[in-house]
Amino acid sequence: MIRLIRRRLIIPRGDTGFFALPLTGHLHNTGVAVFGIFDPLTKTTVLEKEVPLDLDTQEIKVELKHEDTVNLEAKKYRWDIRIYVNPVRDDDDKIIDADIIDSYYSAFSLPVCEIREVA
Questions:
Q1: Where are the domains of the chain?
Q2: How confident is the model over 51-77, as pLDDT tens digits?
Q3: Is the separation of the CB atoms in 116 and 3 below 8 Å?
Q4: pTM
Q5: Which of 11, 20, 21, 25 has a CA that sits 20 to 30 A from residue 103's CA?
């Protein structure tokens, strides 16, 4: 079971589930959110995926599937959500720029994401 306890995200390796966070700021149909997990030791992004913004409920809904985390090493990472307004994409559909780029936790240190081994 994926759990979000305050800012700490706990994910059993290979688990499927979702969590939701309230939207910060005022967005229109042109916003995109990107959930990311970062390894602080190697300073690399180990998971990055676009997640839907639900403008009706004003939530960011992050759904994780088995294949998203099954290959991640069980340890502590950091996580964040970046919100792009009017994103500009390259030929591979990767976001390369936006009118506004905002980090959900940029004013704080990035919270812990713990990938746990399942028994």
A1: 3-116
A2: 988 888 888 999 999 999 999 999 999
A3: no
A4: 0.88
A5: 11
